[in-house]
Design a protein that fits this description.
Layout: H1 9-22, H2 30-42, H3 50-53, E1 54-57, E2 60-63, H4 65-74, E3 78-84, E4 88-95, E5 99-106, H5 107-113, H6 122-138, H7 149-152, H8 175-183, H9 188-201, H10 207-222
Antiparallel strand pairs: 1-2, 3-4, 4-5
Length: 223
């Protein structure tokens, strides 16, 4: 992915507030929008792309099937649609790092899995599940454990809390601890995950220095 200039947290906060107020993308709070923007930025995308690439379903972040496929193809993956129809969707996914696999989703399997909107959009719903399974099987690193909205919607909703408890006091990560976490990453995928945790939980005054540490560690891992 192309390297983009880091967007300051104050600008992300302003964009997150505007997106949540628009009600256009299903992001109900500025915190949800800001969190997804940080994920997008860690993935090398402009934070504003979070609104179109990611979704919040049942309180869980998810990545659209089209975005998954685009990332897979950008990373050198290929897909050949063997069958594409309302009765079944079959795709063969190939990547140099993971080989090749053929994934089949038909109506029987989709109904058993609880896939929604089959009566209105059967081919599109099965295509989304096919993409997620195919990409995750052949080259999982490109989606870093993300699921599609179609998958997340079938997950069991969390059980309601028995009683309302006071919100726990937020604990910030100290600069020294965050620095050790970043420098301890051994892969780019690990660095992305750690950076998301660090960026969302560090002291605001430490963000610039930690960003420099993250960029230096990334350069080290890429060489």
């Amino acid at each position: 992915m192309n390297e983009l200039a880091l967007v300051p947290m104050r600008d992300i906060a302003e964009m997150a507030n505007a997106i949540s107020k628009s009600n256009f993308f299903g992001l109900k709070t500025p915190e949800q929008a800001a969190a997804l923007m940080l994920v997008a930025q860690a993935d090398g995308l402009h934070p504003a792309k979070a609104a179109t690439h990611y979704h919040i379903i049942q309180g869980k972040p998810s990545l659209s099937a089209d975005a998954m496929l685009a990332r897979f193809q950008a990373a050198g993956g290929r897909v050949k649609w063997e069958v594409y129809g309302d009765d079944a969707v079959i795709g063969t996914f190939t990547h140099a790092a993971g080989g090749s696999v053929t994934i089949r989703w038909d109506l029987e399997r989709a109904k058993k899995a609880g896939v929604q909107n089959l009566q209105k959009f059967p081919a599109a719903m099965m295509r989304a599940r096919c993409i997620s399974e195919g990409v995750r099987t052949v080259y999982p690193g490109v989606i870093v454990g993300m699921y599609t909205p179609e998958e997340v919607s079938t997950f069991a909703p969390p059980e309601p809390a028995q009683e309302a408890l006071p919100a726990p006091r937020r604990e910030f990560i100290k600069l020294s601890e965050a620095t050790v976490m970043l420098l301890g990453c051994e892969t780019i995928d690990d660095l992305k995950k750690v950076w998301f945790e660090v960026a969302t939980n560090c002291y605001p005054d430490d963000l610039a220095k930690l960003t420099q540490t993250k960029d230096e560690q990334k350069a080290t891992l890429l060489h």
